[in-house]
Write a structure and sequence with these properties.
It is a single chain. By secondary structure, the chain is of the alpha+beta class. It has a single domain, classed as Beta-Lactamase. 39% of the residues lie in helices and 23% in strands. The protein is built from 3 helices and 5 strands. Strands 2-1-5-4-3 form a 5-stranded antiparallel β-sheet, sandwiched between helices. The radius of gyration is 13 Å and the shape is globular.
């Protein structure tokens, strides 16, 4: 999980060895931020984006906005049903942001 809210924070679940190095996470989060800004350009036409899911061969990645405060980037194993995870992530984000 990585969060950008003006400051970069990243952490893996206990016992999990990440597939991506910290510098790569920073770069990925910066790119996700650019993509999110691009998505927001369509707000007037199709509405505000709630989240984004990207499926790769080795991981799933979920991007969730923290309103105007930043982004949360979560990486999961490919066998996880990410749709079930979204409401839980949103609940946690509302508690802390």
């Amino acid at each position: 999980m990585a969060i950008y809210d003006g400051h970069f924070k990243a952490k893996y679940q206990k016992g999990i060895k990440g597939k991506i190095k910290e510098e790569e996470i920073r770069n990925s989060l910066a790119e996700a931020h650019l993509r999110w800004d691009f998505r927001k350009k369509w707000n007037y036409r199709i509405g505000k984006p709630s989240y984004s899911i990207e499926k790769y061969d080795k991981i799933n990645r979920v991007t969730i906005p923290l309103e105007e405060q930043g982004l949360v980037l979560i990486t999961t194993e490919t066998n996880l049903n990410v749709q079930d995870l979204i409401p839980k992530i949103n609940k946690i984000c509302r508690m802390f942001f």
